[in-house]
Structure to design on (839 residues):
């Protein structure tokens, strides 16, 4: 199925698919049969792909359309309708700035700007090194602890513009420590 | 496990007795038990660090104790919340317990057993002469917890805890007396839908029940998309079995054999807890085939919403379950007549279903004795914003806004003035201080142009700009409009653009009239309540805070000093302290420089108006000023410090 799909692409499109994306596509081919082929499975399937692989590569939409026996247009229409689905890979540290009412009133917008400035990416984008991605969410239900930001899985409460720097520094320090640890291990083993 | 025989109630009594024994072991534990609030808000406030702190301190001091994760009490201002049950003491509730405080509690209270650390405690859960009890506080005393009674006190991931407090007893009773009796009770109780519209739940059930078809469906609507409301999340996370029991009772009443929980994807913890609860309930024969030995069966599953506000609307929710874009459909047919797969489908909000077990347990007369004649029962609000004690509050319907905000939630923080209360989220309105005597029930709120919505209540002080709030909500509904109806899709867009131009000082007075005209059109020309209520925030702010709109348009001034295009910050050189660098360090764009007299000033070209320097400036100087319009900055003759001067110092 995958080869047939790839054959429909032109050369530029084919070249744009890197190894990582190709591996996702291969995995999805194996995962799809776990779902029944009814249209009501469409959203659960898309959710499953995103949960396992972080995003929906373009060709997976074709594969899903084929599986639930509908058109690619329909799948694309559904996938773009819901806020949850994304079409580019997320960063290793996805940052979600809550812009619910309480967070907005307490300056969530300013936090978002600070992240944009600090990470040099815009809302909805992923940094070139795939370290960070930045997005806004409507409300995570932590309104009494506003403004809130979700970093990875962790919810940060009472975030201030100057805490933005701290959050990023914490991630950088953690990465640095992990890298040193790895170097140490490699030296010890090598 | 061997299943007992006999009537459903006898079945349940066996379950309940077993559960009570197991819970009793915990309650009468010879070692201390530490309960830590671990719902999303507790985790955000650092509950995991608190647990780590307890674990480390217990280990260091060689003390044996049990740590249990519980749900949310709704007292978000005091998170992380901890209840310690130390033998010889009543259970005590502590507030704001971080890892450090956890260590102190272990050393002084658990190890020495002498000092219960009065400085951190709120009160004892039971009456005790040595401690204040929770009822000594207005935040607890004025509340009437019916639906949230057990939230934060029981372990949501252990069905025994729910069974031990009488859980599923209503279901057993319902099965014995039959679905028709359950329906009659709920109808007689006049339970109105807590999702916002207030449609009587019993009526909805009756319609579905009356359709002569073999199969029916019950859906729990947990697609809580209203930014600023999180009580559904709390109920799902803190007392999942109560939701399931309500769902089962609804299914029993309408004669459904299939039930679904629709939970939004932004609530991963709620999904996890609910899925676990379903498995536990099935294991105990409280869900699944032949429930409690009766001929009533119910298959329950969870469906994750994918993040679309409009899916809170019944017909849109059904569309998304069917694998379509979540676009509302014309009614009739109502879902209760023909919903998912054309089957009669009853959709009830999480709060509505959570209320049902208590009605069955205590009877409809009891329920009607709470609240008002037309809106009986309690209402749960998430009161957030500028109040002293934000969080979830459950009060009888019909209390005034004043009572809720001032008496229960402690009034406005930092001695400021109440300006407005935003009630009902994007579908609701902003009510001014003069309307604080309005009663909170479905009908009274409609008369002043707001609505109950799902119960989000954001309290705002004088520093919040009403035009900006209207812009925010319109921007939200514009983004969430499904695009089906022209007026909702394009009308909200025009409204948003006009509001946007007003907040940056480019609005005109003619546009105010346009806003009102478009609002009317959007209300008339929209199919679902997303569009029909979208103009509410704009119309209420125009009605009650028109002078703010006028100030933005005619004076280019934001009275609340919030709209960033219309304000500026400057440092008052008089109180600014020589040599102090607090503001310089916090500025994200290096806009603050040292002046020739070694004080600080802001480069207006660089300043992004984040306001961080206001907080950074030590209160004893308090030198940063905010003005609107920006031209109000006085000329203080600021000169930057030259390099020559700097090198001389």
């Amino acid at each position: 199925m995958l080869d047939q799909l790839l054959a429909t692409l032109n050369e530029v499109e084919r070249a744009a698919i890197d190894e990582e994306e190709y591996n996702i596509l291969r995995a999805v081919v194996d995962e799809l049969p776990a779902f029944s082929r009814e249209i009501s499975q469409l959203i659960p399937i898309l959710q499953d792909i995103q949960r396992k692989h972080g995003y929906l590569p373009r060709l997976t939409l074709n594969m899903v359309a084929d599986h639930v026996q509908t058109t690619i247009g329909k799948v694309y229409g559904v996938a773009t309708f819901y806020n949850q689905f994304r079409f580019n890979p997320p960063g290793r540290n996805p940052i979600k700035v809550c812009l619910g009412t309480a967070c907005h009133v307490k300056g969530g917008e300013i936090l978002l700007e600070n992240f944009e400035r600090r990470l040099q990416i815009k809302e909805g984008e992923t940094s070139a090194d795939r370290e960070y991605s930045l997005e806004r969410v409507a409300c995570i239900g932590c309104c009494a602890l506003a403004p809130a930001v979700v970093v990875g899985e962790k919810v940060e409460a009472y975030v201030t513009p100057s805490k933005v720097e701290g959050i990023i520094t914490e991630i950088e320090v953690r990465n640095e420590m992990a890298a040193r640890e790895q170097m140490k291990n490699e030296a010890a083993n090598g | 496990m061997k299943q007992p025989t006999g009537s459903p109630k006898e079945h349940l009594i066996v379950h309940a007795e077993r559960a009570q024994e197991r819970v009793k072991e915990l309650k009468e534990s010879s070692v201390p038990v530490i309960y830590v609030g671990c719902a999303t808000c507790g985790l955000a406030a650092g509950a995991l660090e608190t647990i780590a702190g307890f674990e480390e301190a217990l280990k260091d001091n060689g003390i044996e104790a049990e740590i249990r994760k519980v749900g949310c009490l709704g007292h978000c201002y005091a998170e992380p919340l901890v209840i310690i049950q130390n033998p010889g003491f009543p259970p005590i509730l502590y507030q704001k317990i971080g890892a450090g405080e956890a260590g102190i509690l272990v050393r002084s209270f658990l190890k020495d057993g002498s000092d219960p650390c009065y400085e951190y405690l709120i009160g004892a859960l039971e009456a005790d002469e040595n401690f204040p009890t929770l009822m000594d506080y207005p935040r607890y005393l004025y509340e009437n917890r019916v639906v949230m009674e057990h939230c934060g006190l029981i372990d949501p991931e252990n069905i025994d805890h729910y069974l031990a407090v009488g859980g599923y007893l209503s279901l057993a009773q319902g099965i014995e007396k039959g679905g028709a009796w359950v329906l009659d009770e709920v109808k007689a109780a006049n339970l109105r839908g807590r999702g916002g519209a207030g449609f009587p739940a019993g009526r909805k059930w009756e319609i579905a029940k009356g359709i002569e078809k073999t199969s029916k469906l019950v859906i729990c609507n947990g697609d809580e998309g209203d930014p600023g409301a999180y009580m559904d999340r709390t109920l799902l996370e803190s007392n999942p079995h109560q939701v399931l029991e309500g769902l089962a009772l609804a299914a029993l009443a309408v004669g459904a054999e299939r039930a679904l929980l629709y939970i939004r994807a932004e609530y991963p913890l709620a999904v996890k807890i609910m899925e676990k609860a379903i498995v536990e309930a099935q294991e105990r024969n409280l869900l699944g085939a032949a429930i409690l030995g009766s001929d009533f069966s119910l298959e329950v599953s969870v469906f994750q919403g994918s993040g679309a506000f409009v899916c809170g609307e019944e017909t849109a929710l059904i569309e998304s379950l069917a694998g379509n874009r979540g676009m509302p459909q014309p009614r009739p047919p109502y879902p209760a007549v023909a919903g998912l797969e054309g089957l009669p489908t009853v959709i009830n909000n999480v709060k509505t279903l959570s209320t049902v077990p208590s009605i069955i347990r205590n009877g409809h007369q009891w329920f009607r004795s709470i609240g008002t004649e037309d809106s009986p029962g309690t209402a749960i609000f998430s009161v957030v914003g500028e109040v002293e004690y934000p969080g979830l509050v459950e009060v009888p319907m019909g209390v005034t806004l004043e009572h809720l905000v001032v008496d229960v939630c402690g009034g406005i923080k930092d001695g400021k003035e109440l300006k407005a209360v935003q009630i009902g989220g994007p579908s609701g309105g902003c009510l001014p201080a003069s309307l604080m005597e309005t009663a909170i029930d479905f009908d009274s709120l409609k008369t002043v142009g707001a609505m109950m919505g799902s119960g989000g209540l954001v309290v705002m002080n004088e520093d919040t700009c009403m035009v900006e709030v209207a812009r925010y909500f319109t921007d939200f509904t514009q983004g969430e409009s499904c695009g089906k109806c022209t007026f909702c899709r394009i009308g909200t867009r025009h409204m948003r653009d006009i509001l946007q131009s007003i907040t940056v000082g480019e609005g005109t007075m003619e546009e105010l009239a346009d806003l009102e005209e478009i609002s009317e059109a959007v209300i008339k020309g929209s199919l679902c309540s997303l569009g029909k209520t979208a103009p509410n925030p704009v119309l209420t702010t125009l009605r009650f805070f028109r002078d703010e709109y006028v100030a933005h348009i005619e004076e280019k001034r934001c009275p609340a000093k919030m709209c960033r295009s219309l304000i500026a910050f400057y440092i008052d050189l008089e109180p600014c302290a020589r040599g102090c660098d607090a503001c310089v360090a916090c500025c994200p764009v290096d806009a603050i420089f040292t002046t020739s007299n070694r004080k600080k000033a802001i480069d207006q070209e660089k300043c992004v108006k984040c306001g961080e320097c206001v907080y950074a400036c030590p209160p004893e100087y308090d030198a940063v000023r905010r003005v609107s319009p920006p031209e109000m900055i006085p000329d203080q003759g600021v000169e930057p410090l030259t390099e020559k001067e700097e090198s001389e110092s």
The domain at 93-189 of chain A is CATH 3.40.30.10 (Glutaredoxin). Chain A has two domains: 2-81, 93-189. Chain A has a mean pLDDT of 92.
